[in-house]
Design goal:
By secondary structure, this protein is α+β, with helices and mostly antiparallel strands. Helix content is 63%, strand content 10%.
């Protein structure tokens, strides 16, 4: 089975690049024609483009540079380097489409934006996350709010992207009314569902098993970032006879993104597999006693 550890850097960055291109294409061809400010730096770029006539790619590039420096200051150099590639590739692709590709002549039906824009943006984002990348942008302030103010990631996402969507709804209220904001929210929901399906499948909950030499580090990071209970089971390699620890935790689909990052940071050599959790009894919150 192909994993991040077995992929060559060329294949990994190739898939991340494909994912970013799909995100940009979905945004440019299906979101921009309907002026849907869907959050993220791309939404801010669309907002400035419509109000001030500034190229979207330029706005996205400037914002990404500012956010990268903020990430370096608040989250450290490692967070800066992880976000570097996506932060520059996204506005580069957007620039190419703005300069060389005309917009599609689409019928005036926002469902096209919701369905196709949400699908391609979600598909692209799913590939980026699945292959260990990041699209940069508002990922950085979301992580800053989470780490510095101890806000849950979900609340941080709602605050950052919600503020951008609200700004777009106000800016285009005379044209689309409140419907513009509602269409934008629906697009984000579709994109999120598609991304979830790409990364972890369609089940709501996942059981994750992590075989590692660093159980305490991973357990602590899970408690700090997703607040889920963790059970520790001693295991022994059938061939090597090496003793290790298996961590078992149940998480939601969106939390799987965070778990992948945690494991890559604490123990890149850990053996990890996830299965659908079809039936859960009892509480799997870290504040309750571990199973």
């Amino acid at each position: 089975m192909t994993t991040l550890k077995t992929l060559t850097p060329r294949r990994r960055y190739g898939m991340i690049t494909l994912g970013i291109f799909l995100m940009v294409a979905g945004f440019y061809y299906f979101i921009v024609p309907f002026n849907l400010v869907i959050g993220g730096v791309s939404g801010v770029g669309l907002l400035f483009n419509e109000l001030l006539g500034v190229p979207m790619s330029l706005v996205v590039f400037i914002l990404n540079v500012v956010l990268l420096l903020s990430g370096w200051a608040f989250l450290g150099f490692a967070a800066f380097t992880r976000s570097l590639y996506g932060s520059f590739v996204f506005p580069f692709f957007l620039f190419l489409l703005e300069v060389f590709s005309p917009l599609f002549d689409l019928p005036n039906d926002p469902l096209i934006a919701i369905a196709f824009g949400g699908f391609f943006m979600g598909l692209g984002f799913g590939y980026v996350i699945r292959y260990g990348g990041t699209s940069g942008g508002t990922d950085i302030p979301i992580k800053i709010l989470n780490r510095k103010l101890k806000l849950p990631l979900s609340v941080s996402i709602y605050l950052v992207d919600g503020a951008i969507i609200l700004s777009g709804m106000i800016a285009f209220y005379s044209v689309a009314g409140i419907a513009g904001g509602l269409y934008a929210i629906l697009t984000v929901v579709v994109a999120g569902k598609v991304a979830d399906a790409v990364v972890v499948g369609s089940n709501a909950l996942r059981t994750v098993q992590i075989v590692t030499d660093k159980p305490d580090e991973i357990k602590t990071l899970i408690y700090q970032n997703v607040a889920r209970g963790v059970s520790l089971v001693p295991v022994e390699g059938g061939y090597s006879k090496h003793r290790k620890t298996m961590l078992i935790t149940v998480i939601t689909r969106t939390e799987y993104y965070i778990i992948r990052t945690i494991i890559a940071k604490a123990d890149p050599k850990a053996f990890v597999f996830a299965t659908p959790a079809t039936e859960i009894q009892g509480d799997f919150d870290a504040r309750m006693e571990d199973a």
